[in-house]
Design goal:
Number of strands: 0
Strand content: under 5%
Number of helices: 17
GO molecular function, one term: signaling receptor activity
Keywords: Membrane, Metal-binding, Transmembrane, Transmembrane helix, Zinc
Structural class: mainly alpha
Shape: elongated
GO biological process, one term: response to hormone
Largest sheet: none
Subcellular location: Membrane
Protein name: Heptahelical transmembrane protein 1-like
Length: about 375
């Protein structure tokens, strides 16, 4: 009887399998899917653990730069993970975003000023079907909205005869020194953001990006000299050549020095700062010369005020950069926000904006005052 029942049960199962020939296959598929799902979950967990933020002690030696920042480091992350970490909270987040916002700001200023260069405006009008812009809509006149204080302090009509006012693009001063400064600023800010975002990838990329970052700082300092020296000494080409050539040679020497891998380490932080400060101090000589030459010009005090703000901003930022204050006073308290490098970034942007204001004054002055009067 038992054997008969077992046989009948087997027959029923066989008949059911004949009716549903994919019964076993579907069961295997479900089991495989479950295994794959569990494997993916396990991989995602291990991946999250693998790319977790680490402490200073867990860092590879090439990433140990500031011993007062104790936590929230990224180390040996793939490029994709490093890229998307721009939206994560770690000790480089504000370093990335401060200069990235500064880059976007200067990009906007550059585009806005380019829109008011007659040649560029005419080119754009071809595609926008708009009316041509008049020739007197130049960089300096249309940038007043950004630094309204400049236009309030300066009334060039009081110092410029009616016949010397700009009436055509041919009479306007060259714009390229102004855009050289804007380009140098954007390069510095973008290279800095890129360095802070991707330097966690590998030792090789870390060294490369650090050098590019230092080159960006040197380029920004060099290009900052172009608007004031070019426009102030436009009528004295010898001094114009001496000063622009001097800062360019000094900048090239600084860049060549900083490209050495050994000088990219934290040990040489004060030396790097000294090189940058030396480049900035080079500007004292042409500044004194410019004040003497233009002593009677009413714009003198305005430009001096802007440049004083720029110098103070850069020097203050450098002091934070070298001293590592405030994290030196309370290690671990400023890991995410408020540490010295973030403060340094903010002062760099403030200094660049102050110099932008001065460059507008220099450009507007040279647009309205020819060499005959300034001499």
């Amino acid at each position: 009887m038992i054997n008969t029942r077992k046989g009948s049960v087997w027959k029923r199962k066989t008949k059911e399998m004949e009716k549903d020939p994919y019964h076993l296959v579907s069961s295997d598929t479900k089991e495989n899917n479950n295994k794959k799902r569990k494997k993916k979950i396990s991989q995602s967990r291990s991946k999250a653990k693998q790319y977790a933020l680490v402490t200073y002690q867990e860092l590879p030696e090439y990433m140990k730069d500031n011993e007062y920042i104790l936590n929230y480091y990224r180390a040996n992350w793939p490029l994709k993970e490093a890229l998307f970490s721009i939206f994560r909270w770690h000790n480089e987040t504000l370093n990335v975003w401060t200069h990235l916002i500064g880059f976007v700001l200067f990009l906007g200023l550059t585009v806005t000023n380019l829109m008011h260069v007659p040649q560029v405006a005419d080119f754009i009008n071809i595609f926008t079907w708009s009316f041509p812009m008049s020739g007197d809509q130049n960089v300096s006149h249309n940038s007043k909205d950004f630094f309204s204080g400049t236009t309030k302090l300066i009334d060039l009509k009081q110092t410029t005869p009616q016949e010397m006012e700009i009436s055509s693009p041919e009479m306007a001063a060259a714009r390229w020194p102004f855009f050289v400064f804007l380009g140098g600023s954007m390069f510095c800010l973008f290279s800095s953001s890129t360095c802070h975002l991707f330097s966690c990838h590998s030792h090789h990329l870390n060294l490369f990006l650090l050098r590019i970052d230092y080159v960006g700082i040197a380029v920004m300092i060099i290009t900052s000299f172009f608007p004031p020296i070019y426009y102030i000494f436009q009528c004295d080409t010898l001094w114009q050549f001496i000063y622009l050539g001097g800062i360019t040679v000094m900048g090239i020497f600084t860049i060549a020095t900083l490209l050495s891998p050994s000088l990219s380490t934290g040990k040489y932080r004060p030396f790097r700062a000294l090189l940058f400060v030396a480049m900035g101090l080079f500007g004292i000589v042409p500044a004194i010369h410019a004040v003497i030459v233009n002593w009677t010009e009413p714009q003198r005090n305005v430009t001096l005020a802007y440049e004083a703000v720029m110098a103070l901003s850069y020097l203050t930022g450098t002091m934070f950069y070298v001293s590592r204050i405030p994290e030196r006073w309370k290690a671990g308290w400023f890991d995410l926000a408020g540490h010295s490098h973030q403060i340094f970034h903010v002062f760099v942007i403030l200094g660049a904006l102050a110099h932008y204001g001065a460059a507008l004054v220099f450009l507007e002055f040279r647009d309205n005052v020819g060499c005959e009067r300034s001499s």
